[in-house]
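Re: [ENG-882] Designed sequences occasionally contain unexpected residues at chain ends

Forwarding the minimal case from QA. C-alpha cells:
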C-alpha cells in the first residue's frame, strides 16, 4: 500500500505507526510467538560496527552443522550503526535483535534467557577468537542429557591459547582472583564461551552485570549443583579487543558488590 509523504506530514501519528511496523520485525521483544529453536546463539554486543560482520563466518559454520537455530544479537545500548549493518548484511531469517537500554553485558543476556524459546543457549564471541568446533562438541555432549553446561575455558590444561602476553596475563590473574574471592565456587577461568540447557532455573534470576555476568553465571551454576563439563578450546589473538584498565577495575568492583551484597 502506498502512503504519501504529505499524508505523514499532515498526520504524524500515521508516520509513527509506519516506523513501528517497519522496525517490528527486527525486534524479538515484538516477536515472542516465534517457533521454538533448537539452539539460540547469543552475541552480546555494544557498538561493534567494526567487527559484527565477522559473525558471517560463524553463520556459515552454523548452517553446515546445526538445524533450527538463530543468531541472537543482544544490542546493549548500542549508539552506533551496528543494528543497521546487521540488517543489511544478514538474512533476516537467520537472526533476531534484542535491544537493551543498558550497556551491561548481562542486561541483554537476561532478556534472552527470559524470552527466547529454545532447547539450548550458546554464548558466542563476535570476534571469532574461539574455535567453532567447541559448539559441535558441546552440543553432542548436551544431547546426552546428563551434562547441563559445557564450558570452553582458557585455563583448561589442554586448551591451545594463541593470544598475546597481556591477554594471557589477564587470564592468569583472573584465576588467582577467583581463587581468592570465590575459592568454593570457581576453579577455572569462567570468562569463556559456553553452551547450556535452557531449562536451568537460575538463569532467569541473574543480575545485569557487565563483565562479571559470566562469573555470576558460573557461581550460580555451582551453587545449584548443576552438572558441568570443561572441554579444551583453541583461542587465537584478534584485533579490536576492548580489554583495558577501566574494564578490569569495573569487573573487580562488580565482583566485590556481588561478594558483599548479593551472593
Amino acid at each position: 500500500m502506498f502512503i504519501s509523504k504529505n499524508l505523514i506530514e499532515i498526520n504524524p501519528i500515521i508516520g509513527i505507526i509506519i516506523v513501528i511496523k517497519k522496525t517490528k520485525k527486527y525486534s524479538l521483544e515484538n516477536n515472542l510467538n516465534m517457533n521454538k529453536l533448537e539452539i539460540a546463539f547469543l552475541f552480546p554486543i555494544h557498538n561493534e560496527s567494526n567487527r559484527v560482520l565477522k559473525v558471517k563466518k560463524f553463520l556459515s559454520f552454523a548452517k553446515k552443522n546445526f538445524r533450527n537455530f538463530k543468531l541472537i544479537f543482544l544490542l546493549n545500548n548500542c549508539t552506533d550503526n551496528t543494528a543497521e549493518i546487521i540488517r543489511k548484511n544478514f538474512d533476516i531469517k537467520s537472526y533476531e535483535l534484542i535491544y537493551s537500554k543498558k550497556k551491561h553485558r548481562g542486561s541483554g543476556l537476561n532478556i534472552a534467557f527470559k524470552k527466547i524459546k529454545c532447547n539450548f543457549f550458546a554464548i558466542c564471541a563476535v570476534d571469532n577468537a574461539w574455535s567453532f568446533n567447541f559448539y559441535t562438541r558441546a552440543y553432542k555432549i548436551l544431547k546426552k542429557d546428563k551434562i547441563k553446561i559445557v564450558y570452553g575455558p582458557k585455563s583448561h590444561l589442554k586448551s591451545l591459547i594463541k593470544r598475546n602476553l597481556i591477554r594471557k596475563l589477564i587470564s592468569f590473574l583472573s584465576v588467582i582472583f577467583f581463587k581468592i574471592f570465590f575459592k568454593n565456587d570457581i576453579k577455572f577461568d569462567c570468562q569463556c564461551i559456553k553452551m547450556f540447557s535452557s531449562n536451568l532455573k537460575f538463569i532467569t534470576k541473574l543480575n545485569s552485570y557487565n563483565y562479571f555476568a559470566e562469573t555470576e553465571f558460573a557461581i550460580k551454576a555451582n551453587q545449584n549443583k548443576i552438572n558441568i563439563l570443561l572441554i579444551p578450546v583453541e583461542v587465537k589473538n584478534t584485533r579490536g579487543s576492548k580489554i583495558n584498565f577501566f574494564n578490569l577495575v569495573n569487573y573487580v568492583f562488580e565482583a566485590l558488590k556481588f561478594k558483599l551484597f548479593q551472593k
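QA comment: On inspection the terminal residues look reasonable. Residues 245-262 form the longest helix (18 residues). Proposing we downgrade this to a documentation issue.
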